């Protein structure tokens, strides 16, 4: 089948790696790649493929989400979207023994958890449309193993307390949607790519972006 796939946070790291990997597959008809700022998309814009559509998207701006939704809806038509990869996210260290940084905390939780929730709420009709057309549909939320409730061993050396909280919230959202929408045949998956050499993972991480994007 022809696949229509949307990737958020596609200007660098895992998001960019996924876009490059997806475009290697002929069954992928369209890849919709979103980013937060036009000033940070040099490598993404170097990809020359008519199937790639690049849009500016700030997850906390409803007007932008609505604008991107209409453009994608008009492109995919009755096919709908087969997969949405929520990869956009931010990380800032937070020291519980240091000063209170309320704005930083709220921003991280909004972008890593609230944003993907609102985004999914807006784009869910396109996943349902794909199912109605007899095709597969899935929402993939890029999470992190350090946000696992069962494997938590406290905060990390990077002082990732708020980041862990925000991703744990994203995990719960994914579990709830998977349970509530089970009969709709839309899949929901929270996935940890592991230790990856990205802006968040750092240069000493175990895997390269190319490795995790391919897998």
**How many DSSP H or I helices?**
6
The percent range for helix content is: 40-55%
Strand order of the largest sheet: 3-2-1-4-5-6
CATH class: Alpha Beta
Indicate the low-confidence ranges by residue numbers: none
Topology at a glance:
Blueprint: E1 3-7, H1 13-22, E2 28-35, H2 42-45, E3 52-56, H3 62-76, E4 83-86, H4 102-132, E5 138-142, H5 161-180, E6 187-191, H6 209-214
Parallel strand pairs: 1-2, 1-4, 2-3, 4-5, 5-6
Keywords:
globular, 215 residues, Dehydrogenase, alpha/beta, 6 helices, oxidoreductase activity, 15% strand, Rossmann fold
How would you describe this protein?
- The protein is 40% helix and 15% strand.
- It is built from six helices and six strands, in the order E-H-E-H-E-H-E-H-E-H-E-H.
- The chain has helices spanning 13-22, 42-45, 62-76, 102-132, 161-180, 209-214, and strands spanning 3-7, 28-35, 52-56, 83-86, 138-142, 187-191.
- It has a six-stranded parallel beta sheet with strand order 3-2-1-4-5-6, sandwiched between helices.
- It is globular.
- The relative contact order is 0.16.
């Amino acid at each position: 089948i022809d696949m229509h796939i949307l990737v958020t946070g596609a200007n660098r790291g895992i998001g960019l790696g996924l876009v490059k990997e997806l475009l290697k597959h002929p069954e992928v008809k369209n890849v919709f790649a979103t980013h937060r700022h036009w000033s940070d998309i040099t490598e993404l814009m170097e990809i020359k493929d008519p199937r790639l559509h690049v849009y500016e998207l700030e997850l906390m701006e409803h007007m932008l989400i609505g604008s991107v939704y209409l453009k994608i809806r008009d492109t995919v038509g009755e096919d709908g979207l087969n997969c949405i990869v929520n990869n956009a996210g931010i990380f800032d260290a937070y020291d519980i023994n240091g000063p209170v940084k309320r704005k930083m905390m709220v921003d991280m939780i909004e972008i890593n958890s609230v944003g993907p929730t609102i985004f999914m709420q807006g784009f869910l009709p396109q996943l349902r449309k794909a199912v109605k057309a007899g095709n597969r549909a899935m929402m993939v939320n890029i999470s992190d193993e350090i946000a696992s409730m069962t494997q938590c061993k406290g905060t990390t050396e990077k002082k990732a307390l708020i980041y862990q909280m925000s991703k744990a919230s994203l995990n719960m959202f994914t579990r709830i949607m998977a349970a509530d929408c089970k009969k709709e045949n839309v899949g929901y998956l929270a996935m940890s790519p592991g230790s990856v050499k990205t802006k968040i993972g750092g240069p000493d991480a175990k895997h390269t972006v190319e490795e995790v994007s391919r897998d």
